[in-house]
């Protein structure tokens, strides 16, 4: 299977970190099944340079070919919908693991607009590969939601709309899964700033995707990557 990670700052990761993509790579290796990670990008975000120019992953042994992705700091459904058709086509992606929406709701679009962009993303991905599979992670509200009630409400509403989109658009030919937010995910202990996952958060996010695929599709094994 050819996996493409799609996401925002939580997915691209920053210089000196691992990223949940690394944790997913570890898991896929552990299953012993053949796979490939694809994508047009490979860098981490460098906060000092304010650009995705770093290759300083926490584990230098993380293979270059496994670092590929389609993720960007400050990018959401709004930005990825226009890019996904070309990415799926050029990379011959078969499974999309998608974590998007927080940045949209925080800066660009309301819940209805964000949901519409998610639907557009799905449609464009299928134009490139009518049999593409997708696993979508609901928005995990960040620390802003604790003091900004309207933002928290928009996050909750978007997750309802995203679940509806998955129910409406899931097909046998191109199945879509809605992953579950890890029950134990705590923004105060699983992130380093109330938004971006630290090591424990990365493991839990990778586990959410892996568990969804294993339970629904029998793809890969049960998630068991230790911290």
From TrEMBL:
Domain SGNH hydrolase-type esterase: 5-201
Position of the signal peptide: none
PANTHER family with a match to the protein in the record: GDSL-LIKE LIPASE/ACYLHYDROLASE, PUTATIVE (AFU_ORTHOLOGUE AFUA_2G00820)-RELATED (PTHR43784), GDSL-LIKE LIPASE_ACYLHYDROLASE, PUTATIVE (AFU_ORTHOLOGUE AFUA_2G00820)-RELATED (PTHR43784:SF2)
Name under which the protein is recorded: GDSL-type esterase/lipase family protein
Organism: Streptomyces xantholiticus
Lineage: Bacteria, Bacillati, Actinomycetota, Actinomycetes, Kitasatosporales
């Amino acid at each position: 299977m050819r996996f493409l990670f799609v996401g925002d700052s939580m997915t691209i990761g920053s210089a000196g970190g691992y990223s949940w993509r690394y944790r997913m790579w570890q898991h896929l290796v552990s299953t012993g099944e053949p796979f490939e990670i694809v994508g047009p990008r490979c860098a981490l975000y460098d906060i000092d340079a304010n650009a995705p120019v770093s290759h300083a992953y926490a584990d230098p042994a993380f293979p270059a070919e496994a670092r590929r992705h389609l993720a960007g700091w400050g990018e959401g459904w709004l930005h990825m919908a226009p890019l996904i058709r070309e990415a799926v086509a050029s990379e011959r992606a078969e499974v999309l693991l998608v974590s998007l929406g927080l940045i949209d709701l925080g800066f660009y679009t309301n819940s209805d607009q964000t949901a519409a962009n998610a639907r557009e993303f799905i449609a464009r991905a299928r134009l490139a590969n009518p049999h593409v599979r997708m696993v979508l992670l609901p928005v995990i509200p960040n620390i802003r939601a604790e003091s900004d009630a309207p933002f928290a409400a928009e996050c909750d509403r978007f997750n309802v709309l995203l679940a509806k989109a998955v129910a409406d658009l899931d097909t046998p030919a191109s199945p879509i899964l809605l992953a579950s937010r890890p029950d134990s995910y705590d923004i105060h202990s699983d992130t380093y700033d109330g938004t971006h996952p630290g090591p424990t958060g990365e493991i839990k996010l990778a586990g959410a995707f892996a568990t969804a695929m294993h339970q629904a599709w029998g793809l890969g094994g049960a998630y068991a990557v230790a911290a």
